[in-house]
Specification:
Elements lengths: L34 E5 L8 E5 L55 H4 L16 H6 L36 E11 L14 H10 L5 E2 L20 H18 L4 H6 L4 E5 L2 H15 L8 E5 L28 H11 L1 H7 L3 E2 L5 H18 L10 H19 L6 H17 L12 H4 L11 E6 L1 H10 L24 H4 L5 E9 L6 E6 L2 E2 L16 E2 H14 L2 H6 L22
Parallel strand pairs: 3-8, 5-6
Antiparallel strand pairs: 1-2, 3-9, 4-7, 9-10, 10-11, 10-12
Helix pairs in contact: 4-6, 7-10, 11-13, 11-15
Amino acid sequence: MEKNYHELPQSELPPPSNASRASGSLPWKKSLLAYAVVTISSLSLGAVWLLCRPVLDRSATDAFAAPDAGSTNVHHYPPPSPTNAFPSLFPSDVGHAGPTPTGAEPALVATAPAYPIHTGAPHLLGPEALRNHSKQPFDIFRHWGNLSPWFSVGRNAFGVDAGPEPPQGCCVTGLHLLHRHGARYPTGQASFGGPANFSARLAQSPESWQARGELEFMNDWTYQLGEEILTPFGRQQLFDLGVSMRLKYGFLLHNFTATNTLPVFRTESQDRMLASAHNFALGFFGYPLDGQYQQLVTIEDHGFNNTLAPSKTCRNAHAPSRGDRAVPFVRAWGAWYLRGALTRLAPQIEGFELTLEDVYVMQQLCAYETVAIGYSKFCELFTEEEWEGFDYAVDLYFWYNSAFGSPVARAQGVGYVQELVARLTHTPIETHNSSTNATLDDNPATFPLGQSLYVDATHEVVALNVITALNLTSFAADGPLPTDHIPPNRAFKTSHLAPFATNVQFQLLSCASSPDPQIRVIINDGVAPLTGIRGCPDTADGTCPVPTFVAAQRETIRDADWVWACLGEWEVPPGTAWNTTRGDPPRRG
């Protein structure tokens, strides 16, 4: 069916005006907006909308920002009541499927000569300047902290010179997978930074400011980000992660066929969590999902116990001086690494006072816009050193808020550790004294034991809580993190541990060299050392006997005082006057 596509001729565009917009003369206002052109051919059944933005003449010194600069630009899809929707004419299944015999389950992790590498950012475009002028290859996508797309960190990234493939003489017997949701829009609230706050300030009075030079694009820039839900790229991340895990561990499904059972995967009720879980499942199982697995959706809201969203019952996690103590550290570091950028960029926008926090937000916007719409002009504004500084700023934020430097990190992670021990030992949780949910965890239908495959979806903060609670202390080697320099070869990197779609594999092994089953922790394809866990040996491949691992975690569970950490009345002074490198609060008394 033929459709004609036309663009509005330049001759039909209203000419830009040289008149001062401060005087109220805005004859070129419409030329700032994207033009929507509808053309319907005689054979076409619908309308085709094309967007084009005319090139504006900004040579006049009195041409300020466009009236819509900084404003929010959204597109609501799908339409609420489409006129051409006829569900009965478009069934999803019409039969006549043809041959459908399946093949063998893949087992790449056990059979392939090498392990596949995930590079992290298909379909996203980085700034041309960094590619052309860098002395060494520089991947900007790996310097966005928790906003980085996940990537394979590589052998020896965490100090173990081994890959995710099973060691010689070992075979994989089980997998417990904890993963983060995919790339999302910014959250609604931010204790430091926050793109929506910045755009709102710009939109308050666009007639009073003007950008030029590197910032000239801001004269027409609008805020195109939603809030908290997955972006298209985020959906792809989880679908791809599901495909990857099926290729590597599909053979574990044999155990379910043998026992005539279905896997139970878990996620939370937040939109991005549910969407992430479904996209993972579509990648892992394929369409349709019915009859292939069971998806448990736990409630993520205040007052509901949930190990995958433990802050909802941990009151102190929301207290600025206890669970949100990172902002002074980030501000102090920002004053160091962004002072050159602020000096460079502030003169390029007149009538708007650019602050250090605004410049930090521009770096956030680079990441958020890229994972949402594929590219961002904000990425072009900063040097490699400034991106390394941003990456470390995010490290400071999560170290002091969610990991080893947070007084509530261990308590929030210990509930998942209790569940992990229950699954490893095939025994119910003994005592519900943390964020565990007795209603769900004591029910073998919703919390089955003895399965070979578990998949849980969560947030980056929870992944860091769990890493802290497990005593993976090699990641705390540089703590407390300083605010006046970046520690060389630092162990704690959020882009390595908690990027978008981060995945933590608890890999179970049977090895000919040991009578006991073995466990390894693999974070984004990097094997983590378990030497911080009491009794775990320093092995070349990062393994630890499961009985030893379990005994140490039970000790951690006994020592973790969830009630005191999450509900107790304790205080810590701001800044460096008090610190922890174990994720614990001050002791009682």
